[in-house]
Amino acid sequence: MAKKIRKQTYSLGQYLKAMEKEVIRTDQDCQRLSGQWNANMINELLYTVLTDGYIPPIILGEETSSGITRSWIIDGLQRSSSLALFRYGNKAITRKLDEYMVPYQRKVLDEAGNIKRDAQGEIVWETAECDIRGKTYGKLPEELQDMFNEYQLETAIHQDCDITQISKLVRKYNNHQGMSVNQKAFTYADNFATDIRQITQNRFFLDVYTCTGKGKINGTPERVVMDMVLLCNYPENFKKDAKKGFSWLNENATLQDFETVDNLLTRMALLNITPGARELFNSKHAHIFVALFKTFAELGKPDDDFGRFLEWFINTGNNVMIDGKSWNSLNEGLVSTRDANVVRGKLDFLVSLMNLYFEKDRIAA
Fold it and tell me: What gap in Å lies between CA 74 and CA 111, rounded to an integer?
């Protein structure tokens, strides 16, 4: 029988040190990435801590493997990472804060800087206020630094969990907190979550893939990797719905499927892809062009030829007609760019266009 949830209270200093030493882990594979909160949310959190206000308990999942116990953050990653960034990352409280004067007590010093004492030899204290706007941890008065470190942080710990149970807990506890569709869907890929996250660190996602800063942390890169693995290895099983796609991979994919995509991305990152061609590799079409590169790789041509094809494509090829349609016309009036038939149709079109390009190139040679 599973043990009950254990409650434990840490001082905030203890908790953040445990995070820093990776006794408490922030990188559970299916957990959404840190950085989801805006500056105002972080400001309010820090003000709450410095004024000894209430923060809901952090939820942890405890996993024991080969006699080694690790705790994973299930719910509270944004709070934890924001507090750690302030304590250790020189993060400053911004100027936009509704309440910013924090009262505290401090020892009274005389003109020589010595602590004042009364006639009975007791330390003389006074009440002071600190404007915390623009302050980093290091710029706070020592008394407020102590208040920060001594803040009592409650945790609730689910004991004796395995990785699958922890992924389910992540999904459960984040159900009410506005996880994006992609972030929630990703929790269904617990068998390959580590492999997917590793692929998002491929140089391709830095040098070729184009997305906004928010797009990098809202689960979109993980979903794009899922799309790539499906379209490269199981095109007939491509799923419009991200949850269904992740679930299908979780049950049917192999490690080699992910290695294949990772190798393709590594090769593509080495190509001389111009800024114009990079625009093709967005969240709507990156998986299609990576699957196209997989087909190209099977032709046995030098990889640089694919870069030349992309440049021709953005300048001329996107208007070339095949069976009465061009790439530009394929993208007109679509209700959903993720519809499986639309995605497979675009890939088929591009394969035909690429074959036409290299056939003409061979004849011209």
Answer: 51
Output helix, strand, coil percentages for the chain, rounded to the nearest 5.
50, 15, 35
CA 230 to CA 246: how far, in whole Å?
A: 9
The answer to whether residues 213 and 273 touch, using CB atoms and an 8 Å cutoff, is no
In this predicted model, what pLDDT tens digit does every residue of 79-108 receive, in sequence order? Answer: 999 999 999 999 999 988 878 999 999 988
Burial of 212 (0-12, 13-18, 19+ CB in 10 A): exposed
Structure tokens given for 210: 């184009």
Q: Which residue, chain included where needed, has tokens 């394969």? A: 351
**CA distances from residue 232 to 169, 246, 257, 260, 346 in whole angstroms, order as listed:** 31, 15, 8, 8, 14
pLDDT digits (tens, 9 = 90+) for 344-356: 999 999 999 999 9
Residue 1's contacts (CB-CB under 8 Å, 6 or more residues apart) are none
Other CB atoms within 10 A of residue 308 CB: 14
